[in-house]
Structures are given as structure tokens and as C-alpha cells.
Design goal:
Number of helices: 5
Distance between the termini: 36 Å
Shape: globular
Radius of gyration: 22 Å
Helix content: 10-25%
Largest sheet: 13 strands, antiparallel
Structural class: alpha+beta
Length: about 300
């Protein structure tokens, strides 16, 4: 399976059209509950609104489940369309299917909406795969819907910074640079196909972690090349860092700058994706950590399935 990463969107609300308007709780948006507002909208998205012509992306909501009293689970599909092509068997090279420009090979993504019964913030956690980010599209669509239908409340969104908090407090134990391998023609005529190439850097023997200052410099190509002892890097390389804190480790994918574009790695290329239960557990842990930083908490009761 392909690599999957996690992005987190934080939502806050305030009185509309008023300077420094009063904060609104997501569970009480002038009488409306964000959980119900989102559910009513996402379960009724018209078919014609699931294809994005400009981006040539297709997103479909396969199913919606009220997983807990205050949690909505989305099973999503995402893919690209607009260019004819072929689907080939990677083992035999034979054509399995011919793709037309209005067909989209799709993959699955999952997303979760957490709406605390008390508090000022809600969180939307979305899985992203090599097929795309269905959750990102859904959130963009919902923001537009909310702004058009909620006259008295304004919604503000931003990327949650729990990952950055980890990078500030945890220790850097490994730097990995990944590039795409190239095929090699050997002298005997055989062709060796190389998939992923990884360059790993770990602290020298006797040291448990790198100096903290290194993390903020990994966006510099000259520093990155020195760390992994490589003269040239493929323009499409990716940088992963492994962090350790309190006996726990997490791996993060850094963006072009090692600040806001930080996404937690859920499963690596070639590994099976997390099960639904594992995905929900991981996301719940993230929300618990985010709320704790706001001197709040996620009540376990909100994770219990509502009675039929």
C-alpha cells in the first residue's frame, strides 16, 4: 500500500460581522450544533459537486457513521481524471483496462470530525494518500457551505500545530531522505528496477539524538546534503524526521519548509494502512493532546457510540 499521512484542521467560531465578536462553542452555534450541521450537509452532497474540474479531482463520500456521541467518521474516495491512459499489471505489463478522460481511478481516504460538547474548538482529521486528500476537499467545500448558510456565526480554520509542538519538545533521533530509484542496465543485459532509495542519518555512537538546532535547518539543501552525505538530491525528494519524547517515537514528513507543512506519518509505503480502529485511536490521541494544550480535555464519554 502507499504512504498515508495525517493532517489536522482546527475550527473556531465567533459572532459574525462584529469586530472581536464573541466566541461561539461548536456545540452551540447560536442554537445549531456543528456535528449536526456537518452531518446534514455531508450526507447530501449532490453528485455533480463531487468532481472538481479545475483540479481534475473526483471526491466521493462513500459512507458517514456517527462513531461516537461527538465523533463523525467519513469513508471517502479520491482520484484524478481528465487524461486518457491505461491500467497495467505491474507483473506482466499487460493492459488491464483503458482509462477514458472521464474515468477516475480512486483510492480510499478516511476522515474524522471531533466536536467536544464543551469548549471552543472542533477538529477535522483527514488521511492523505498517494491518490490525494479527499478530506481536504471536503473541508474546503464545507467552509464554503458554512459561510453561505450560517448568517450569525463565522468559522475560522487553521492547521493544528500538535506536530510542531512535538518537534519543539521531542528529540531528533533520525533524518531520512527518500528519492525515487532509477533502473540500471547491467553488463549482462539484465535490467534492475530500483524503487525507493533512502539515505539515513543517525547520531554518532554514544549520542542518543542530534542537536536540537539541526531540525530548523533541514529545509536548507546544503545542510541536508551534508547530513546524509549526498552531493546531489533529486528535486522530488522527501524528508522524514523521527522524534522521541517520553519513550514514544513519531515520524513526521517535512514540507519544503520545516515549519507549518508538517504531517504525521500514519503508514509507510509498502505497509498496510491502519485499520479503522487503529486510525480512530490515533486520531483520538491527537485530539486529546491538542485539547490538553488548551487546558481542556476530551471526555471519553464523547467517544462512546450513541444508543440506537
Amino acid at each position: 500500500m502507499g504512504r498515508r499521512v495525517l493532517t489536522v484542521t482546527e475550527m473556531t467560531f465567533h459572532q459574525a460581522r462584529v469586530h472581536n465578536g464573541a466566541t461561539r462553542a461548536p456545540s452551540d452555534l447560536d442554537g445549531a450544533d456543528l456535528l449536526e450541521v456537518f452531518h446534514d450537509w455531508v450526507t447530501a452532497i449532490p453528485e455533480e459537486d463531487q468532481a472538481f474540474g479545475r483540479q481534475q479531482t473526483y471526491v466521493r463520500v462513500e459512507s458517514v457513521l456517527r462513531l461516537g456521541a461527538r465523533i463523525e467518521f467519513l469513508d471517502l474516495r479520491v482520484g484524478s481524471y481528465g487524461e486518457p491512459g491505461e491500467v497495467r499489471d505491474i507483473k506482466t505489463g499487460s493492459v488491464v483496462h483503458t482509462i477514458t478522460d472521464d474515468e477516475a481511478p480512486v483510492g480510499s481516504n478516511r476522515a474524522l470530525l471531533f466536536v467536544p460538547e464543551v469548549g471552543e474548538r472542533a477538529y477535522f482529521l483527514a488521511e492523505e494518500s498517494s491518490r490525494g486528500s479527499a478530506g481536504g476537499r471536503i473541508m474546503t467545500m464545507f467552509k464554503h457551505h458554512f459561510s453561505k448558510t450560517m448568517d450569525t456565526v463565522t468559522m475560522e480554520t487553521g492547521k493544528a500545530v500538535e506536530a510542531e509542538n512535538w518537534l519543539q519538545l521531542a528529540n531528533l533521533t533520525e533524518v531520512e531522505v527518500r528519492t525515487t530509484g532509477k533502473s540500471v542496465d547491467l553488463a549482462d543485459g539484465s535490467d534492475v528496477k530500483v524503487g525507493r532509495v533512502s539515505y539515513l542519518a543517525r547520531p554518532e555512537r554514544g549520542m542518543k539524538h542530534f542537536p536540537r538546532a539541526l531540525l530548523g535547518k533541514l529545509s536548507r539543501q546544503d545542510v541536508l546534503k551534508q547530513v546524509v552525505s549526498v552531493q546531489d538530491l533529486d528535486p522530488d525528494h522527501e524528508v522524514y524526521v523521527t522524534m522521541e519524547q517520553g519513550g514514544r517515537t513519531k515520524k513526521f514528513l517535512l514540507g519544503e519548509e520545516s515549519g507549518p507543512a508538517i504531517r504525521e506519518l500514519l503508514s509507510d509505503a509498502g505497509d498496510p494502512p491502519l485499520t479503522d480502529d487503529e486510525f480512530v485511536t490515533r486520531c483520538t490521541e491527537r485530539v486529546e493532546g491538542l485539547l490538553e494544550r488548551q487546558n481542556s480535555e476530551w471526555n471519553p464519554i464523547w467517544s462512546k457510540r450513541p444508543k440506537e
